């Protein structure tokens, strides 16, 4: 399990939470917590376990906050149904009802005029009825202000709804752009697609050229064959199309896998790490489907680097007596698919190509047709004296070294060691100080040791002891065999 994948998933979870895509954020948070739980089982150092448990607690708190926000938003959705008004809004003045008459001022008047005033009051009442009758046809005008207000409010409500839909669609499109694209596995078994995406795809492996010591010629060729077509797609067209595939040949532990990961990182491509167990199945026809599905997914996620480690176990020489029919079908499908992912022609985009990188320790067992498709065949040798010293510096950059440590002298003593052998020597030497410190102590005393007591500098004597314990894993006869094959079939 890669710590880089855990950190990438945490970053994606936080980005989705900031964008408001809480469902995707919760999926990533749950996946990170599960990955950290699995990683905790493999950690033996109590100090590191405590640190990882603290990080796990922090991530779980973040996930709980996101879950609370989702619950709050869900409660808003439940309460968003509009309530019906219990009664209709009535206008301030109803034209159907006559207004109360204005009380008239009563003034004292002389007695003889009493009848006349009564007649006048009858006239006023009559005139009031006439005026009310005259106002009758204009009753609708008294409702116009309220109806206009309702129309304005309805128009504003529609505009707000349209504006809200546009903003929602805009935010949804922004989130969908930020989400990684998903392969559509229609026509294939869903379990096969999920297995390939879970076990194979590794986006941005985060291995740089500087992390690999020596191998200057191999780096130069891989940059020309893989990296430069990504940077200069206009140049690599026609006869200058990119190479279909590259085969890395060499003894074990020389950095072939690291070179492939560095290619994927420098190109910013999706990295497929394939082995024989990935493309085999006990069901008839499943292996061929897996091969075809792998290359279809690679084209979908292009630009893509497919790294097939130990390719001799998948595509060994055909026509032998020990070859099985199922193995022959898988080889045929692999060869067909590799021809289908050739370099760019004049109408193709080199930035969308699929590059096949392969590595093997037994190049003499590879099928001839596959050897033709892997147009570049390069030799990854054992590190030179300068490369061994550089590899020592890379492996020991996090350790405290004593003043008597001479890396150049150590590099000279490790002639014939592979990169993996040098790493084992560095690891063994870094543990020497700890072994001396805990010698003769009880388990309780070991647990009570402080961190400063455990981190003591590594001395020259530690490296000498480690060199006596760790021998080289590659013989001179093997090196001669590789050099003979590369002289006959190499294409550098």
Automatic annotation (TrEMBL):
Keywords: ATP-binding, Cell cycle, Cell division, Cytoplasm, Cytoskeleton, Isomerase, Microtubule, Mitosis, Nucleotide-binding. GO terms for cellular component: microtubule; spindle. One of its GO terms (biological process) is cell division. One of its GO terms (molecular function) is microtubule binding. Residues 145-171, 178-187 have a biased composition (Basic and acidic residues). Residues 85-187 are annotated as: Disordered. Residues 242-384 form the AAA+ ATPase domain. It comes from the Eukaryota. InterPro entries: AAA+_ATPase (IPR003593), AAA_lid_3 (IPR041569), ATPase_AAA_core (IPR003959), ATPase_AAA_CS (IPR003960), KATNA1 (IPR028596), KATNA1_MIT (IPR048611), KTNA1_AAA_dom (IPR048612), MT-severing_AAA_ATPase (IPR050304). Belongs to the AAA ATPase family. This is KTNA1 protein. It comes from Nothocercus nigrocapillus. The gene is Katna1.
